[in-house]
Structure formats: structure tokens, C-alpha cells
Amino acid sequence: MRRIVFLFFIFFTTTIWAQLEFGSIENLSNTPGWVSEEPDIAIDGENLYLVWNKWGDIAFKKSNDMGNSWSNTQILYSVLDYGAYYPAIAQSNQNVYIFYHRNAVNNSEIFMCRSSNNGDSFENEVQVTNAIHGAQTCQVAASGDNIYLVYEDRDADYTYQLYMVKSTDNGENWSEPIQISDPQYHSRWVNLVYANSTLYCTWNAQVGGNYDQLDLYFAKSEDNGDSWSDPFNISNDQAYNARLDTAVLDNKIYIAVSAKPDGLQSDIILYKSENNGESWIKLGNISDNSGSSSRPNLWITQNPNSSQTLYVAWSDDTYAVDSQIYLKYSLNNGSSWSEKFLVSNETGDSGWPHIVGNSVNENDDMYCVWHYAEAGTFDYEIYGRSATYSYEPMATLWGTVQNESEDPLEDALITANTYSTHSNEEGMYELTLTAGTHEVHCSASGYVTISEEIEIEADENMELNFTLSSQPEILFPPVNLTAEIVEDDILLEWQEPQSNGNYLHWDNNQNSDSVGGPSIETFDCAVRFTQSDISEYEGDYLTKIRFYIADNNCELFLRVWQGGSQYFAGNLVLEQEVQELTSNSWNLFQLDYPIQIDSSQELWFGYRINNPNGVYPAGSDNGPAVPFQGDMLLYGSNWVSMYDYFGWDINWNIQGFVVSTDPDKKTNILSKNGNKQLLGYNIYQNDQLIVENFNEQTSYLVTDLEPEETYEFYVTALYSSGESSASNIAEITLTANENESVPTTFSLHGNYPNPFNPSTTIYFQIGKTENVNLEIFNTKGQKIKSYHVSKGQQQITWNGCDSNGKLVDSGIYFYRLSAQNKNIIRKMLLLK
Fold first, then answer.
1. Are 260 and 204 in contact (CB under 8 A)?
2. Cα separations (Å) of 347 from 22, 321, 341?
3. Nearest Cα to 397, choosing from 441, 354, 367, 356?
4. What is the spatial distance between Cα 368 and Cα 356, in angstroms, rounded to a whole number?
5. How many CB atoms lie within 10 A of CB 113?
6. 497/661 Cα distance (integer angstroms)
């Protein structure tokens, strides 16, 4: 089973904290016995302009103090026969423009009422459109003397299309319609924004045979509507992408749409373009609940952290019998979101929210309107409520990162609690964070992480520079040193340096599930180890991470954190992009630099997945889950246990390889350390160096030893960067006839002739023992020849050649007869 979650994430956690406070809820229409609905609102500074449909009449009122007080209601249009619907409002300079559609003599047409004195009074309505088969549901934008109007009309084939007309003289004259939409599809519920001297138009188009098969489309005009880009399908999933809203700031465009990503109830899905509409990414599901979420509305502003704060309001019937209005905000360009806030009344039916705002003195002052009817009635009224978002005082930390040679370090990671940034190519960084005490960490690939605690005040610009020392190479020692007596000598044998360690993990090593899906753009998976979990690994190193990937059609970044708690991963100390993922397989990667374990703080490791193709990449087992340890997921800006939050009885298939340079702590030999800078070995006897830089084999024959003495040996590995710690110590006492205490099932009688040239015969006796081997070595420990001895065989003749048939040089050789972990060794001399 593939598991799908709807998330929205960031590369660093939320960077501004604030307080959101709401004013009281106020009935703005006060029309008992009438139905007041379909509100729209515009803002200019602290001036609010509100329009709504009062049972076919167009009603208007305004506020000059951000909604604290309101004018009397003006009825701009009132006719019993031809009711008006879907009013839209725009404001520019002293002008307020209100548009709506109603039935005319032959068709539904778009009409305008205009005020040139900030809404104190309005002129009579004028007809703007000359429809083909019925103009309706318009949207409007205004800038200076220009007005831009988009609307629906049915073409000659009665297909819904979108058209634009404009006026350059405050609505006195209007251009001919320009079609924006793709003529092959029904296109409806248009949205229009004017920003950056550009018009941005979004809508839904019925691309399939069923009404619910709706995709989200986009087009823009950079010449005041005279020409438009080709319609572009943003969603391309036919997931009922219906009612929508658009917000633009700088080159970033955000679209919130009511969609059905699972084909069931609707949710609020957010899309973003960071390049003025040239390409799009799906940020995720904002509402993500079991009921229907609809009619999102956006407001965007710049925040003190040089990021964009985005607010979205929508109606939702998940938590009550009737729909209610909820609000969320994002402080980092829509990457992560706050908890939801209830805006409307707790009972009754609320819908059609609109939100506007104004940023003043590091506060975001907002006003939200919606229509509302008490439970069990259809007596809708227009309600409103103010809200203020107060940013905490911020400060700026800046400086440079360099190495010991004073060269700038690019892409160093600087973290302070939840705030993070990277250095640029000049080694410079800048980090905006809240005032107060912070522990600042600086890390870079191949360098030792350093930390410094700072106290920073509000509005302070603090300089903090870092000089990083090169990460010392982990110099693994040789392992499994043994010593054997060979007549009067001692044969030392060892294994190459290896990464002796354990995989830390909570999973069962078997993949049975995968997590992801088309609604997840980015998500983090991690496993968590507490101080007690890693106490025995104090001072060891995390060097590798392996994980199971079910689908490699994604991007993946290894991540390691230290510190934190059950609900917080701590400080990000490593982020490493990986290449060449393999699907349906375990993937193992060496870390760019080892992370030394500090058992006084928690250790987390895992990965971040960028998932633009909507695949299911993240592998997991089938449990039982280890809650809050084997199943950590970054959900929004919070870490959660999948078992605790979703009830999923699974663990991530993520494992970290921990090694030690202490040979006494070695456990299983699992993999070679792969160090290609190994130069050779130093051999020590009773703490004295007897052989330096021995590099020909992993065995050595120690000669000229005194009998009846006890000897201790150890070996170190030599690297280009230095000498490793010692291997294990091999202790042995050289006694006479040591090799005669062997099992009676086989015996070695010697060789004849000895010395010999060119050949000699080795004689032995085999009893019931099977699988006996005879091996010939030189004094460097290199194996020259090997034989398998058959049952009943009593002699083997060696012709002085190696395994390739090449004659060997004169010198001392020794031969070893071995069976059932027992060995008998003798020397022989080849003379040429």
C-alpha cells in the first residue's frame, strides 16, 4: 500500500513568530428579511470599500478607519425584474468602480457604477459589454485611469469563454473584447490581478467530458491587455480545480484553488511561481481535512524578514454541520503554514470569504468579510471582522565564513535555533532572527562544526565571523590481529582497516510500504535517537546513511540534526544532495563529513524529498511502529510521529552507520572504509617499532626471538594524513614444540629434501579429518600456492612454482596444514 499525506514544507523551519489577534464579529449589512450575499471588498490604506448582492440589489458601504466604523448603506442598483449578481469592486486614485451582471433586454450583460469621490456617491449604471450569448461573473482590476475587466461569455458554439475589455479613461470608453481562454474548453470562474505592470489571469477549464474534470489555467499580458500569452495548464490533473484566487508580489505568483486531489471532497491547494509565471510548483494542501473546503481568498505582503507573508481564508464544513470561515498564514513565501484560526461565528453557515490588508509599523492589519446565516435559516447577512498580526522584534546577524587559510567558504550552513541560511561564494551570510539568546552553529563539508552563543537585541546588526578548521580524517586501524608460532618464529596476520560499527535504526530491514503522492511537493523523514539511545556511542562517528527508495523520480537531500526534543529536530548540522538513486532498493551514501556523536544531545538523521512528479518514494516497514523515534515526519512546521498523528503503524527504512576509531569498541565488520590513501603499516613489538611502513601484505613473520618469552604485538595503519590508533593487541608466549600439541586426526611430518632445488615433497598423515588445506607462504606473508588435501592422501610435491606456474626466488618459505581451525606450520629453504 502506498500512503499519501498532504503537506507543505520548507528548507528551513519558520523564521518569524508573531501574534494574531482578532476584533469582534460585526453584522455589516443589517438587512433582516433579505438575503445579503456575495460580498467583495477593496482597500486603499485604511479605507475599505464593500459591495454585496442584497437579493438582486447592489449595496455598498465604506469605512475610513480599517473597519472600526462604517458609513450608511447605499443601494446602487435596484430593480425587481432583473436582479444583479456577483458584484466585483476595484479602487484607484479617487475612483471606486463596481461591476456586476444582470439581465438586459436580450442577454445577461456587465454593468458598472462609478464613484469619483471615494465612494461618497455614485453615478448611474452604464452597460459595459455587448455580449455574444450572456456576459457574467466578472472580475476587475484598476491602476491609474485604466480599468481592466474580464468576464465569461458563451461563444457562437455556446462554449464558455473568457474575454477582456479595458478602459483608459476611467470607464468613459471601452475597447473591443479580447478572448483570453482556449476556445476548445469551457472556461469559467476567472480571476484577475494587476501588478508589476502586468495583468495576471487565472481560471478553470473543463478539459474532460465530466463537469468535475477541471484544470487550473493561467495567462498574462505585459502590454496592458492588448495581447496575452497562450493559456497554460498549471494543474494538469483534472482534479476539479474550481473556485480560485490569485495574489502577486514581486515576481512571485500564488494561486489558491478549491480542488479534489483524491476525487472526493474539495481541499485548498496552493500553487506558486517564482519567475513571474514561467514555471509553477505545487506547494501542497492547505486545508487537508475530511470535509469540503471552498472559495479560498488570498492577501500577500512583505514581512520584516524579507520574506512574503501570505494569508488565506476559506470556507470549510469539516468541523461543524454548516460551513465556517478559517484563516491560515505563511511567513515564508507559502512554504509552511500556521495552525488554522476560526474567523466566523461558531454556529450557522458562513461562506464567500474575502480578505484585504495593510502593513503598517511591522503590523499586518486585515479585514475579512463573508456572508452568514444563522443555523437553520437562509437569512444571510454580510459579516466582517478585523485582525492584526504583530511581528516580534527582529535582529540581523551577519558575517563571513572562512577556513584556516582565510579562504572564503561557500555554502556553509549557519543555524540559530530554527533560523538557517548559507554563505555565498564570497563566504558572506546574513540571517534575520528574533531578538534574544541564540546558540549559533556553523558547519561546512570537510570542516569541524563550531558553535557560539550570542545575545542579540531588537533591530541590532551583529557581526559574527567564523573560521573553520579542517575536519580531521578518521584514521581506522587494522583489525583482527592474530599471532601464531612457526617453529622458532611468530607469524602476525591482520585485516585491512575497516569501518567497524553498527547501523542505528528502528525498522525491521524489510520494505513494505511507501509514502508520497501527487499532493506532496516536499517532505522530510527522520529517525530520532535520544541521549540514552546513543550513550554507548559517545565520541563515535556517523559516517553513512542508507534508506529504501521505492521510486527514484525525485530529488533527495540527506539531513542530520543534533539537539532538539520529541517535537523538534534540533540544529541542522548537515545537508547533502545525493545522486543516482535506485528505485525499489536500499541506497547507501557516505556523508560528506562524519558527524561525531555527542550523547548529551539527541541525534536525528533522515532525508528531505523534493517530489515535483508526485511519486511515492519514501520506504517504510510494516511495523510495529516505534512512535516518536522511528516514524518522525515534518508536518507543516511541526515534527510529528506518524503513528501518533495518523495512526500509521510503520517506521521509516532509514539507517545510520556509526563507527569508532577505538578497536576495543568494534562490533561487526560490515564494510570496508574505502580509504584510498592507505600507505602501509607500522608493526610494534612490546611497544617498540620493529617494522616501519610495511606495505606488501597483511601478514609478517617475526624472527630472531628468544624462547620462553611473552611478546605483545600491535599494528597501526599509515595514511597520507597520519598514523591510526593501534589495532588490538596480540599476546603470545614462544615455547618449544608449540606446534606439536595438535589433534591426532592429522599430522605434519616435514618435507624432503630440505634445503631443496627445484622441488620438495611434503609428508603428512590424515586421519578422519576432512577438508584439510595445505598452503605455502613466503616470509612476507604472501600466499604462494595452496592445495586441498583429500582423505587418505599422504604427500604433496611442490615444484617451486607459484599458482601461475612461475618459478619463485630462492629463500625461506613456510607451509601450513590446517583443518577444523587447527594449524601446523613448518619452514623450508629453497636454494637455486
1. no
2. 18, 8, 15
3. 441
4. 7
5. 24
6. 10
Residue 325's SS3 state is strand
What are the angstrom distances between the C-alpha of 516 and each of 194, 551, 610, 612, 666? 36, 10, 10, 11, 38
Mean pLDDT of 391-400: 85
Task: Output phi, psi for 665, to 5 deg.
Answer: -100, 5
In sign, the C-alpha dihedral spanning 428, 429, 430, 434 is negative
Nearest to 182 by CA among 205, 202, 216, 156: 205
Output the 3-class SS for 419-441. Answer: EEEECCCCCEEEEEEECEEEEEE
Q: Of 323, 389, 379, nearest to 355 (Cα)?
A: 389
Phi, psi torsion values for 85, nearest 5 degrees: -140, 160
The least confident of 173-182, 312-321, 552-561, 777-786 is 777-786
* Contact call for residues 782 and 697 (beta carbons, < 8 A): yes
Number of H helices, E strands in the chain: 1, 66
The total of other beta-carbon atoms located within 10 Å of residue 127's CB is 14
Cell of 693: 611502513
Please state whether beta strands 489-495 and 699-702 pair in parallel, antiparallel, or not at all (unpaired): antiparallel
Taken in order 686, 692, 698, 702, the sign of the CA dihedral is negative
Output the nine-digit C-alpha cell for 670.
560490515
Note the pLDDT tens digit of each residue in 155-213: 999 999 999 999 999 999 999 999 999 999 999 999 999 999 999 999 999 999 888 89
- Mention every residue, 6+ apart, whose C-beta is less than 8 A from residue 610: 521, 522, 554, 555, 556, 557
Q: CA-to-CA distance for 416 and 431, rounded, in angstroms?
A: 9
DSSP letter (8 states) at residue 70: -
pLDDT tens digits, 473-505 = 667 788 788 898 887 788 888 888 765 577 899
Which strands, in side-by-side order, build the sheet including 244-249?
244-249, 252-259, 267-273, 281-285
Q: Which one, of 782, 753, 766, 780, lies nearest residue 824 by Cα? A: 766
CB burial of 509-539 (b: ≥16 within 10 Å; e: otherwise) equals eebebbbbbbbbbbbbbbbbbeeeebeebee
